[in-house]
Amino acid sequence: MRIPISWLREFVDVPLDVTPDDVHAALVSVGFEEEAIHTFGLSGPIVVGQVLEFTPEPQSNGKTINWCQVDVGESAPRGIVCGAHNFIVGDKVVVSLPGAILPGPFPIAARTTYGHVSDGMIASARELGLGEEHDGILRLASLGLDPAVGADATALLGLDDWAVEINVTPDRGYAFSIRGVAREYAHATGAAFRDPAERPELTQVASRVASAESAGLVARPAPSIDDRAPIRGRTGASVFVTRVVRGIDAARPSPAWMVARLSLAGIRSISLVVDITNYVMLELGQPIHGYDLDRLSGGLVVRRAEPGATLETLDGHRRTLHPQDLLITDDSGPIGLAGVMGGASTEIAATTANVLVEAANFDPVSIARTARRHKLPSEASRRFERGVDPEVADAAAARVVELLVQLADGTADTEGSRLFDVVPREPIVLPDGYIAGLMGADYSDVEILRSLTDIGGSIEPINHALSVTAPSWRPDLTDKATLAEEVARIVGYDRIPAVLPTAPPGRGLTREQRLRRSAAGLLASTGHTEVLSYPFVSQGANDTFGGPLAGAVPAIRLANPLDGEAPFLRTSLLPGLIETARRNLSRGLNDLAIYEIGSVFRPEADTRYGSGDLPSGIIRPTSSELADLLGSIPPQPLRVAALFTGAAIAKQPGQPSVPRGIADAIDAARQVGHALGVTVTVAGGSHHSFHPGRTAELFFGDHNIGFAGELLPALADERDLPRVTAVLELELGLLIELADRAVSPSAIAAYPAATQDLSVVVGADVPAGEVLSAIVEGAGPLLELAHLVDDYRGQGILDGSKSLTFALRFRANDRTLTAREATEAKLAGAARASERFGAAIRE
Predict the structure, then answer these.
(1) Contact criterion met (CB below 8 Å) for 36 and 168
(2) What share of the chain in percent tops pLDDT 70?
(3) In DSSP terms, which residues pair with 74 in a beta bridge?
(4) The whole model's pTM is what?
(5) 688 or 203, greater pLDDT
(6) Which residue range(s) make up the domain with 249?
(7) In this structure, is residue 220 part of a structural domain?
(8) How far is 526 from 529, CA to CA, in rounded Å?
(9) 244, containing H or E segment
């Protein structure tokens, strides 16, 4: 919300020397957020000038300029080049003299152009910051002004004003008005507040409303869907006030002060009648709509849309209506989307003579849904969906009538109607001592009474409590807690002491937390970058990465997804990592090693989740309710996943680049295992999204704990990734659960180790990991460490075979091993590999 300071001063006493920072500080102290400061960006000499004469001069580029002599109140006229043609001799205009600065910033100086020295500039409305229209220079007569030549144009047009902008939270819709912000400024500073809705000219009934039959302007509720529900529950309109003004001159210009205030408030000037309705909406917070009375057919009816009905709105779009859309209709059918936008059929034009003014109050939920359904947000819907003061409609309608009479030369008519069906607000009981107990600060009775009175509450003392009726403009005040918050806000948040909570007794992190942090810390310390991605994915992403078989894993579909293209909860962490990699690659970051630790959602097949009712949030759920809640959500196993692209070692002098691949993914899996104190073993595997022959299945003991591999090249291309993209996904939660039984202390070796290599030839399709397992099993307890160091296929090796070389380390705890003992253990391992896979020792 933008608040022009001149407008604010009309309703609250603001010091003349106040600065924008002062106003912001005052409003921040009562709970608003500071956003920006807005000015017209003008400075220097900007004066009223009068065109004495001008000479059109065609140019070689096809453009015709005017060489003008302009009186600016000095001893001699100034020569100014002007490209506009919408003025005549004698017109009074706005002249920016050398030294002035226009919005942009655009400094003005005397300069040579088109063969003349242009000693200033004749300005347009857009160049002055008064709007986006640029149909030529601004003629002051078009604004109904006839000022003295040489007068200060900035003050004349209200361009010396400024505005502060604040962010209004959804629960404080009353602050979407100058009236509401002025009241809050008064709360913050103690300045006197004058409610514009209580001016005698507006609160007095100007005329009797004619009967519905004679006026023909009936604001009657339409029947509800079942023809039985009351007005409030089904029509969505609790207040509907109409007034009539006749004989207006709709072609008159909007006054300069109104255009300037609207512009500072962020609303462009359109026409006099529309500007007046927008002005009153900003002033009082009540959206107003004006109809061309002569284009109406019969009385007005508030009702829901009929299936298949259409309406052309003021923006020129014909919209198909939804049965829950709230409409304003007459005998011809729909003429407006209630609370959102009017219809084109009753639009006010320059020829309009008679106006019907409507000020209504509509159901916030209905208006919000209609605006979102039609993708049609408006200033009116923005206010209605946050709650509009139902008591201000009469004053707002009267204010519009007043301005139409003053500015458009209209005549107020006695015709009109008034529907008011607002349920009185129930008092709220505020017990003595409640506020101090909730806020942790003491407040005197005087402070409490003054605060609740300042916000407009009606207070009646009762036994050990106060009975407080919240004002009509504060729908957010619904219980004693919200009243306590208001007292704290008005008195000042600085009264609430800052006390650090006492840490509860305990032993720090749980075992699961420590192990999870260990895994994350080790990956980060070895060059991997942790990322966090959204858990919402498409069905295709789940089908692709959810499991080894395409589409075999069921997924949870959200009832209200944030993105219609990603309505499912993830069954794998890989889709999020891939999107993160795509974003980084598009920004030129090609060497990636990223990982994520998070939950996935793995529902059981043919099981429905989330169908139970949620317990009340007022009290703590019981144990059975908590159990029901936990049973209503799908299993969420904890996983760790990683993705690798580009080079592990960048190319540099004496060092070729080392590309990343499946080896990096397997190494990351082993690092995770090392952090948890377990050994991850590798075996060949298959996954429909991974490259055949470059896919590893990961195990801990007999437990399958995940996959590592390189994405199919076609899949990588489809997702704009490098053709070699390695990924890893591990069941981290399962590993943490199993780690406790795997970790055992080992004695420090007191005797030296004996190392030997073993090379065996096996079939090319035999997994090296299985050969290694056989060697370890056959070598017995003397074998301390074994790992693969070479996989050779080439000269000297038969086709269809490969040579695997393993580095072995032997050690005994009670003696120094001899070379013979180590050799015997090695050969025993080779024998077991020969027995299982036909492995032959390579000489």
Answers:
(1) no
(2) 94
(3) none
(4) 0.65
(5) 688
(6) 197-420
(7) yes
(8) 9
(9) strand 237-246
* Token reading at 215: 């006026």
Q: 206 pLDDT exceeds 80?
A: no
Which CATH number belongs to the domain containing residue 22 in this structure?
3.30.56.10
CA gap 642, 639 in Å, rounded? 10
Q: Looking at the domain assignment, is residue 344 inside a domain?
A: yes
Pick from 304, 375, 311, 379: nearest CA to 339: 379
Q: How far apart are alpha carbons 46 and 54 in whole angstroms?
A: 21
- Residue 759's φ and ψ, nearest 5 degrees, are -115, 125
Q: Are 177 and 280 in contact (CB under 8 A)?
A: no
CA distance linking residue 338 with residue 365, whole number of Å:
12
What tens digit of pLDDT does each residue of 232-291 get?
A: 333 678 888 899 999 999 988 888 899 899 999 999 888 999 999 999 999 999 999 999
Phi, psi of 651 (to 5 degrees): -65, 135
Classified as helix, coil or strand, 65 is strand
Burial class (CB in 10 A: 0-12, 13-18, 19+), 205: exposed
Chain centroid to CA 751:
65
Give the total residue count for the chain: 843
Tokens, residue 492 = 């000042």
> Does the CA dihedral 272-273-274-277 come out positive or negative?
positive
Q: How many domains does the chain have?
A: 6
First to last CA, the chain: 85
Lookup: tokens for 817? 């091993």
Within-domain flag for 305: yes
In order, the DSSP letters of 330-380 are ETTEEEEETTTEEBGGG---TT---EEEEEEEE-HHHHHHHHHHTT---HH
C-alpha–C-alpha distance, residues 274 and 254, integer Å: 10
DSSP 8-state code for residue 557: B
